[in-house]
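quick one, 302 residues, struct below
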Amino acid sequence: MRPLTYYIVLKPVATLLRQLAFVLAPRIVPTPSSTLLIPSRDPKRSIKIHVYSPSSPPKGPLPLLLNFCGSGFVIQGHGLDDDYCHYIARNTDYTVFDIQYRMSPEHPCPAPLEDAEDVITWVQSQPGSYDRSRLGLSGFSAGGNVASSMAANHPGPFKVLVVFYPVVDAVRPMGERVAPERGGVKLPGWFMRFCTRAYLSGEFRGRGADVRVSPILRDVKDGWRVERVLGVSPAGDILAGEVEDWVKKLQAGREEGGRFLKIVDCERVEGCGHAWDKVAEEGTEAWEKKMRVYGKVVELLK
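---
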């Protein structure tokens, strides 16, 4: 049974935020190669996937990048990464799965993590179709949290983890979230607090320090079965500090990583804020930085 706060606070505020996003956010119509429905652990539902196929896919099992969109865990953003997914598919031999995971407060933690786990389980059950040695993860903002949580806690193994401005430390005080630079889009503190409250409103209430919610707290020796890691940190974003602290922690623990964590890098993007790549216009400096960072992802996948 849902608590009273769901009906008088969480659901109404989430509905209002979604309506505002519908009016104010840039309208993106995704154009994937195809759409796929993957079975979930709940036999009554399936998980929607946008599939982006390379123009010249390799023979045999396909290398695969699983992508998770930004959402704040509250506002459905599936399709916002259309540019990114097309770019990866055009410039590598990877097929990209852009995954629609469930939103809070209707489906709080661990629902998005379970959706991610179900997709990974399905992919790994088909070795004739997908190359398990070249399975990668990527994500943006809240989706970066989902991708990082999988890399930190799922046995994998994973070839690559690429995360753009992710939340990796749910217990970090808002007062410590200060952007290195002025300017750029910054997530308001009230929005961050609401999204966290909505996401952790179910069985994970009060469990922000759980390593599935805050991947930065997962020790290298206990997880992180991923070979290459790239964290993207816009300097105008209040999440920059935790992203860079997380990368430093992985770099410091590389010796314990064994055959994993061979490459661990952080790309700070000066003069840009949260989700800058989603609003950058072609011909601008922001666009050039977007393409440069997307190019780094391509190099990491090769």
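The chain has one domain: 27-301.
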